[in-house]
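(Structure overview)
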Amino acid sequence: MDFTPIIAGVDTATVVTAIIAMGGLMILPNVAKWGSKKLASFFS
């Protein structure tokens, strides 16, 4: 079986961008939680 057309349709930059975006989305809740705790510590 020849997968050349499938592989040719995948752009490496797009794949790397998607992986970085998923990493950013996964870490975003932790950063928001840390930021809210830091902000709350300023007022208490």
In short: The first helix runs from residue 4 to 8. Helices lie at 4-8, 12-43.
